[in-house]
Write the structure tokens for this entry.
Amino acid sequence: MRVAVVAAMIACTPVVIAQTDAVNAAMRALGATPVQGLEFSATGTRFAIGQAPAPGEGWPGFRLTRYVATVNYDSQAAREELVYVDEANPPVGGGAGPFIAATGQGGIRPIPGEVRQNQVRDGRSEAGLLQMMMTPHGFLKLAAANNASTQVVDVRGRKVQAISFAAAGRTFTGTLNDQNLLDHIETRVPNPLLGDMPVEVTFSEYRDIAGLKFPMRIVQRQGGHPTLDLTVNNVQPNTAAASQLAPPQRTAATPERVGSEKIADGVWFLTGGAPLSLLIEFKDYLVVIEAPQNDEHTAGVLDEAKRLAPTKAIRYVVNTHLHFDHSGGLRRFVAEGITLITHEKNKAYLERILRNPFTLAPDRLARSNRRAAIETVADKRVMTDGARSLELYHLKGNLHEYTLLMAYLPKERLLIQADAFHPRPGAAPLPAPSPFTVNLIENVDRLKLDVDRVVHIHGGVDPYSAVVQSIGRL
């Protein structure tokens, strides 16, 4: 959701806007205590959106040992503090866990133990708005500020009161139970891969706490899968921490320019953020490995490829796996008529989601209405022009993503991999080898590949010996 859209939606001004009877009744049902802000704590599960182990499966979950949300409705600020651990053994899927966590520099690297996050968000940003809507008060205050309408709707055979409001072409709807308590809200936000992605929050098990009613169970879903499942254990309205909370200073986002870094003759990193793309030059055409991030980043990749090889067109883009950070730029390649290569188990899923409605932030593919040309890899595929060969292999048994592909350039003895190994320069040794890296090496051994260097989609090139040493093998 774009910041400008959200700002128009949530901005509080001195202008008095008429509230509907349903909104007033719902606010009264929450209790007599006026609420300008609140804090609540919970335990439960956090899910890593877009990091499923296979196409269409749910996001992997991590146990929350601490969750504290602080919201100031007047200043439009929200803070979220999380501590979570991955108890899956072995870990499955992507996201932050004992072996994978964001470094803060756009990359990913293995770390042991708990993962901690503490972030203050502007309530006019997409993430901040969604966090404010994780409380009934947040939704109802938005409804009051946006001239909400009400109607009676049928939900699974039950007549319920629905509150809806629209802003900048977006619709937000919440339903009330028979006690006028908010029990469900829904909207849609643009996602670079899924298009108009549904977002839902359900509230249940309301209790009287400190003069107000608050749900003891809050579940958020995005893209049809849970992203947060919270069991609330404490609620405090109008705390000093909430009243003092202010949004962070807003700065205009400036996308990193896509540049290039030569790895070998005819092989380049296409830089700018992380993950990255790689460009490989053949006699008559180009191949891009990976389409990360979003439509805008892919536009930069296309421009840089044109600058590096102005007489050759990109014929293929190779998708190593469908995690959102690695596939968010695929739609722009499809819009340009470039053939997509992915694992065979991804084809049906990609054909379906690439036809999803994309009305909230229409991109080039939505405007072109072009159908995707998709070719697949089962276990192995070789692309060659007689002088250069590119071999694509399925990483069998890798639990990071069941359809994960790696690429190999035999002439250069270069292995190109995504997420199976993450460099840890200067870091303490892991308490145990990453199972994803163990699997990578087992596959290299199985295939009898002669590897000299390993190129990482998240950036960097290492000697293969460094990868082997990371799991304790010399």
User: Anything to note?
Assistant: Residues 188 and 392 are 36 Å apart (CA to CA). The first strand starts at residue 37 and ends at 47. The two ends are 49 Å apart (CA to CA).
